[in-house]
């Protein structure tokens, strides 16, 4: 069955609107993806006719909401090919998931002088929680730089592992360059636990945590065509058993007395308080939608877009691409001599084209490339070759303005 991008576009109401009198060309899905009608409908239905708090009531609506909410845990497990639903910890996004590992697994185990290996490709969400341990406990951060083309060979990461390395925390796909990191090869090459930030990769290609062999895998809903404030982290049962709770409150306990606490079993042990019930239901609808189309088919479509966009962007000899590694995702960061990235973004916006400008929460990578900011065009399942052409035409217009 062929990939009908126009039919997919029709599922996203916002794509039919205009911006500044022009058809919207949305190339900022790397920051947050747009939402299909099935997600919007699931959210509306949950609030209009099915809402109640979960896990706490015996009445009809509470039972219904709990069933709908807990169903999402199974959807996420299937999406990631997790062996057990209880390996899925619901979070507000990848940031919370990575912080959960930092506070709940790493902080109790790491001592001054212990090392965490990071790559310069990382988003701040996979940097700052480890800096907390550096500041507070004397943990050492060991940095691995990518190759000039943005690639990150697994052997380069493994070469940084030493006798005091306690964790490797690495992105599966760079949100700035689209670089795909072979986290499976990293995990297979060491006994050191591996945390993979799957915020970008999980959107663009099939993910199989069983095959990857990592210990932690974080995803975020707002990039997965779901609501903001939704997400999850897959944590192997072995690592869950080594963790202490991060947040304390309702739902993560069995009993509380004046003198003692009896914690709930994982994953509820790591899910304190009233969760983002409707947000997670929306995420479940988004993942069902993606799996209905087929992650392999989405990946193939985006690879076609990537190849076409790469060829057209490379032909612009006045444009510099930051990180253009083979096998990358359909994400392009760029700079133009004489024009700030914010100028590019503003001018493109006037032509109805939404791109991101700034450091993309990746300041160490900006420093590596010797820039303070880039303009980033990030493609998704609903983008088309015609939108690549619109971007190229608009970049020509920018170049003429600044020539």
Describe this structure in words.
- With 403 residues, the protein is an alpha/beta fold.
- It is 40% helix and 17% strand.
- The chain is built from 15 helices and 17 strands.
- The protein has helices spanning 5-10, 37-49, 60-80, 94-109, 128-137, 154-159, 183-188, 201-204, 209-212, 237-240, 277-293, 295-314, 341-350, 363-369, 385-402, and strands at 18-19, 22-23, 25-26, 88-91, 115-119, 140-144, 165-171, 194-197, 216-220, 231-235, 253-256, 261-263, 319-321, 331-336, 353-354, 356-358, 374-378.
- A seven-stranded mixed beta sheet has the order 4-10-9-8-7-5-6, sandwiched between helices. It has a four-stranded antiparallel beta sheet with strand order 13-14-17-16, with helices on one face. Strands 1-2 form a two-stranded antiparallel ribbon.
- Helix 7 links the parallel strand 7 and strand 8.
- Helix 3 packs across helix 11 (277-293) and helix 4 runs parallel beside helix 5 (128-137).
- The protein starts with a helix and ends with a helix.
- 46% of the residues are buried.
What's the structural blueprint in terms of helices and strands?
Blueprint: H1 5-10, E1 18-19, E2 22-23, E3 25-26, H2 37-49, H3 60-80, E4 88-91, H4 94-109, E5 115-119, H5 128-137, E6 140-144, H6 154-159, E7 165-171, H7 183-188, E8 194-197, H8 201-204, H9 209-212, E9 216-220, E10 231-235, H10 237-240, E11 253-256, E12 261-263, H11 277-293, H12 295-314, E13 319-321, E14 331-336, H13 341-350, E15 353-354, E16 356-358, H14 363-369, E17 374-378, H15 385-402
Parallel strand pairs: 3-15, 5-6, 5-7, 7-8, 8-9
Antiparallel strand pairs: 1-2, 4-10, 9-10, 11-12, 13-14, 14-17, 16-17
Helix pairs in contact: 2-11, 3-11, 4-5, 12-15
């Amino acid at each position: 069955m062929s990939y009908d991008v126009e039919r997919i576009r029709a599922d996203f109401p916002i794509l039919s609107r205009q911006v500044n009198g022009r058809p919207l060309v949305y190339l900022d899905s790397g920051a947050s993806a747009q939402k299909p009608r099935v997600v919007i409908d699931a959210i509306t239905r949950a609030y209009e006719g099915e809402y109640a708090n979960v896990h706490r009531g015996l009445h009809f609506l509470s039972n219904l909401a709990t069933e709908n909410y807990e169903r999402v845990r199974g959807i996420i497990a299937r999406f990631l090919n997790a062996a057990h639903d209880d390996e899925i910890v619901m979070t507000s996004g990848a940031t919370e998931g990575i912080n959960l590992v930092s506070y709940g697994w790493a902080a109790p185990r790491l001592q001054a002088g212990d090392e965490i290996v990071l790559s310069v490709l990382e988003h701040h969400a996979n940097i700052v929680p480890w800096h907390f341990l550096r500041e507070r406990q004397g943990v050492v951060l060991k940095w691995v730089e990518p190759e000039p083309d943005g690639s990150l060979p697994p052997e380069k990461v493994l070469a940084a592992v030493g006798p005091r390395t306690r964790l490797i925390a690495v992105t599966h796909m760079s949100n700035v360059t689209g670089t795909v990191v072979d986290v499976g090869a990293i995990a297979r090459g060491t006994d050191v636990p591996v945390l993979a930030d799957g915020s970008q990769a999980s959107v663009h290609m099939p993910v199989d945590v069983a095959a990857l062999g990592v210990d932690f895998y974080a995803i975020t809903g707002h990039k997965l065509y779901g609501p903001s404030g939704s997400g999850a982290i897959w944590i192997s049962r072995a690592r869950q058993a080594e963790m202490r709770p991060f947040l304390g409150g309702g739902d993560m306990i069995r009993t509380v007395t004046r003198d003692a606490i009896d914690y709930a079993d994982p994953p509820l042990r790591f899910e304190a308080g009233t969760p983002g019930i409707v947000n997670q239901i929306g995420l479940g609808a988004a993942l069902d939608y993606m799996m209905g189309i087929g992650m392999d088919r989405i990946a193939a479509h985006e690879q076609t877009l990537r190849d076409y966009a790469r060829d057209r962007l490379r032909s612009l000899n006045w444009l510099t691409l930051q990180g253009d590694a083979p096998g990358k995702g359909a994400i392009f960061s760029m700079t133009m001599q004489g024009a700030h990235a914010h100028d590019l973004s503003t001018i493109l916006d006037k032509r109805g084209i939404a791109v991101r400008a700034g450091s993309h929460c990746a300041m160490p990578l900006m420093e590596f490339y010797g820039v303070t900011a880039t303009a980033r065009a990030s493609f998704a399942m609903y983008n088309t070759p015609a939108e690549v052409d619109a971007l190229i035409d608009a970049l020509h217009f920018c170049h003429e303005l600044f020539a």
